[in-house]
Amino acid sequence: MRTQPQRVRALGWLGLALTLSMTAASLSLTSCAARREAKLRADWKQAVRASETAQGGERASDDASGGDAGAQSSEWRDLEAYITRIIDQVSLGLATISMDRLADSMCAEAPDVERLKPDGTGPRVFHCTPDPPQTILGEVMTLELSDNGEVGLVATGLSEESSAQLLAQAVESVASWCEDTLRETTHATNALYEFHTCLTPAGPQLAVGRFPEKEDERWQFSLVVLIPG
Predict the structure, then answer these.
(1) Domain range summary for the chain, segments of one domain joined by +
(2) Is the preceding peptide bond at 201 cis, omega within 30 degrees of 0?
């Protein structure tokens, strides 16, 4: 597990990426974005098929595919219920929310709290295990909340392949949670940042993405609710 300062630094980069994505003049999909999203969906489906094939030698293929797909569906249903709880509590906007109370209601234990700035000032960031715990494709998610208005489930220290698999499945699953189309946005200075955003029916923006961490060529996956200002 990474230390708290590294987690804070990761969330700060996430906040930057989301801020840049929201200030874009248009959320229309470019043809490049459409091709990349289509590739993500195809990669996810291919990964599911490969998993089912690999398990065929251990049990009947029908049972294998049904069990695997069922487990994945259950994980995403649980995650959708958890994200919906967050959205229900933040839909009226940042000015109406106590981040301390939100953390208490969404965390399994008292959260660790850090400041974004090295001198101990600036917005707070809360880290905790979500209640109930959330795991996707074997990756344990950590809940991070920021006074800036970001509430996200993150997995850090991932390989590039693992982060790509998480994002591919997320693009497939999260689209149904959106009021409009889940659209890819681009980072102004780093093409390795991959984010997809949409508005939820209740109003808050949802973002899912991955980006490289600074250390050890590892990656972070994030699924974030952006609280209206």
Answers:
(1) 4-24+51-226
(2) no
